[in-house]
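Appendix B, record 7
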Amino acid sequence: MNRRLALVALLCALASPAFAADKIRVLYLDQSVGFRHAPVTRPKNSNGPTQSEIVMAQIAATSGAFTVESTQDARTITPEKLKDIDVLAFYTTGALPIAPEAWAAIQQWVESGKGGFVGLHSATDTAWPYDGPGQSYTAFINGKFAGHPWVQGTPVTIQAIGGQHPTTKAWPTRFAYAEEIYQFADYDPAKVRALQAMDFTDTALKRPWFIPITWAREIGKGRLFSTSLGHTPSTWDDPRYRAQILDAIRWTAHRTPGQAKPNPDEQALWALRSLLAYDGRPKAEVEARVTRLSKADPAWLRDTAARTAALRPLWPGKPTSDRTRFDAAYKAVLDEVVARSDG
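Structure tokens (predicted):
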């Protein structure tokens, strides 16, 4: 009888409002101050929900893991509002109307471990002037949109790096996809754990620098997740992307374990892999050279990877482009990498 009573008590507890309140509380912001993407565009002549808002609600309902409130007004994010949520999710563009005191409070909320942050696709195409305590938004998310050579529907190959992580387990370790992929300015590999990256040995449109797709970061006691994926409506319909969003929410809310220790040395090797692939070398040769480079001095690896990142502003066609300087810088770093990796 005691066991039966205990079971009844447990079932009652599970059905109680207190247990329901244990669900992760998500505030989803899909405001566009700049370019407006299809997944965050309201139906024509309607104030109805956007595709991404519908999908977020479906993920919440199907998983039972969280509740979600959606808004297209960043002004709703106040210090008081943060007390009622566990995770902020952004699919945004442009200079959001977030007050300085609100942004300072968001950072403190994350650092304290009370809140998590999820950035989807164009969350890195978001920034506004801020000179208050803490970091600017760009420094916080660790990157700023710097073009997308891989426009909507471009075939790419994505590879998992950084070891197993709960936010990438929905995807294969290596897979072909068609998406709009960003490259970044102000990206610091020493601050984040890169989890998915472009592999140019199997991607037709190449660049000689590292392109992270997904990364995780710990800020104080808090957690941050960011991914480039999510430009197209078809991505939002992909069960793997939906699962990744759920896993990111769970991870940033501390419901699942998983480290975010930065992996700059691994990212540096991927940068040199990109450089060699861009030079048109066969995949087997690229992999053999990268294997030999993995034994190089870490300081040299990081410095050389930074030199490949410095090629991006010189890229022909950019406002800051300089073909002569690009060719000279590219050849210098390539020659050094080849010499270091010669068998």
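Remarks on this record: DSSP finds twelve helices and eleven strands in the chain. The first strand starts at residue 24 and ends at 29.
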